[in-house]
Amino acid sequence: MPPSKPHGPVVLPPERESGNVEYKRQILSPSPERLVKLTTQLSYRLDEGDGEAIYEMGVEDGGGHSLLSLEDVVASVDRLEGMARQLNAVVTAKRFTQGMGVEEEPTDAPTATPGSLRGGVPTRCQVRIRRVETHLLDTTKGDEVDRRTSDVSETLSKRNVRVAVVGNVDAGKTCTCARRISLFESTITFPFVLIVVLGKSTLIGSMTTNTLDDGRGRCRTSIMRHRHEIESGRTSTATTHLLGFRSDGAVIGGRDRVRAHRRRPEDEVAREADRVVTFMDLAGHERYLKTTIHGVSSGFADYALVLVNSRQPPTHMTQHHLNLCCSFGIPPIVVFTKADGCPEHAFKNSREEVCKMLRAPDVARRPFKVRNKEDVDMCLTKMHQLAPMFETSAVTGEGMDLLQRMLFHLPKRRKHENKIDRPFEFLVEDIFNVPGVGAVVSGFVNAGTLNVGSHVHIGPLDDGTFLRALAKSAHIARTHADTVVAGQSACLALNLKAESRRRLRRGMVVAKVEPSATREFDAEICVLKGEGTTIRRSYQAYVHILNVRQSAFAKHIEMIKTGTVVPVGKEGKRDEEGCVVLRPGARAKVRFEFAKRPVSETPTEKL
């Protein structure tokens, strides 16, 4: 952007796009949308200056004097102080300068309305802002005060536990009822719809804001993205939300100071937190089952919260979610919601049905009811055998303290730090075209380390080739970062032309070393159950492998018995055409071919 034309004499050099110095004419009465953009800009300047920013109020981008009055400059500085408080920062110094010269009558003013300054004289002010890292001031654990090297990047990689939240959206489907109303001597019947919602988003919203729900969905509106989700109460997209803990286990909650109906921004939570839990809110309705499978497949979850409505028995979707988590090796934690006011017989019925599902051979977990803190501590060392069960209520707060204690003490199961020395690999989950920035890809860093300014390869394209691009910038939890490492969810801005941006798609990878692409892969599969399930050559399946989701055809099938590949003619049933047929209970090695486009090779991954 070219520098603006000076309004008055040039008092400073032109503003630079990078660095921690920002020029502003005035900030008097910005709209809520404009205020959010200004706060984001201040956060960027603080990141550029390692926690310190300098604002020149009353100066144009080109370095010219804005010729503002003292009153306007003081009001703008007050507004800037409010923005700084939202980012957990404070104003450390204010230096007013009056007159048209560069250094004419500078005054260090400790107050917002300095009496030593004259009105009616062109005024500008230099404001120094510094971020306060409150988690470094925590003295509850003595030696942790010396942990000065901790930052957002380390918190979101080494001390970040990823938890998938699943559960049936309706406790027994949508019910159509009829209500009879007597009007004088006539009786009129009105049909109405009763939707029984499970409460996954409500539970997440209650924990991330550290507030109780009003029973009408107030907490879930703070995390839902779309209007139809708020109106119906059903989650249709996979979203992530941060729950921060201080070193003593206290929850970092609250709502946004600008948008009271939203929770605190992720960058604030990440800066203050000593430990972070990343919730992956997945859809529960059967209509969005593919979205849920993709979220579990690509989410790298350490644990799973399986929510069950205590007032209704679990459905077949609860069984699907348990089987899905166990097939990926994710330990489940059962959470009964809406425990307040639930009839005892209904609660007992739901508990018995869940225990029966957990003891089934395909889940093989021993249910354990958590009643106190000692039970929580005991479960932490036996998560490979037990399935802890919590009884909670987002309205009364029942059981929430035990659940938060469990989440705070959960050990990190996936050791992503062991993959830092591997070649860099970034799994693309979503693609954006940001005006003024260009192509931005969001996803998960599966391995390695990337510094901003490095050249990367992104692909594969439909022909199996890769694009070469420059990583211009990176963000982690809406915080500017110079480096991204394995185990982090991040966004990368890539230097690509408009024609190349249109060729990007979900499921690609970003790598330093150009990987190889393939259309075929071998997989060992086991057909668990299903009515009428028959797999033979040319069978088409929808495959989920990490961030890849695509249709694939079975090209070749070999039966497996006791770990040894057996020729088709000796074992396995054939149809009339002589092709091997797989039915429930069969194990086989199948070669698949992707139907649409090649993907990057990812050996030894679950599908």
Model description:
The chain has 607 residues and is α+β, with helices and mostly antiparallel strands. The chain has 12 helices and 33 strands. The strands form 8 sheets. Strands 10-9-11-6-12-13-15-14 form an 8-stranded mixed sheet, sandwiched between helices. A hairpin with a 2-residue loop joins β20 and β21 (479-481). It starts with 20 loop residues before the first strand and ends in a 7-residue tail after the last strand.
What are the SSEs and their pairings?
Blueprint: E1 21-24, H1 32-48, E2 52-57, H2 70-86, E3 89-98, E4 106-108, E5 123-131, H3 152-155, E6 160-166, E7 175-183, E8 186-194, H4 200-209, H5 227-232, E9 239-245, E10 251-252, H6 266-272, E11 275-281, H7 289-298, E12 303-309, H8 316-327, E13 332-337, H9 344-359, E14 366-369, H10 373-380, E15 386-391, H11 400-409, E16 425-434, E17 438-447, E18 449-451, E19 455-459, E20 467-476, E21 479-481, E22 483-485, E23 489-494, H12 498-501, E24 509-511, E25 517-518, E26 520-526, E27 540-545, E28 548-561, E29 564-566, E30 573-574, E31 580-581, E32 587-594, E33 599-600
Parallel strand pairs: 1-2, 6-11, 6-12, 12-13, 13-15, 14-15
Antiparallel strand pairs: 2-5, 3-4, 3-5, 7-8, 9-10, 9-11, 16-17, 16-24, 17-23, 18-22, 19-20, 19-24, 20-21, 20-23, 25-33, 26-32, 27-28, 28-29, 28-32, 30-31
Helix pairs in contact: 10-11
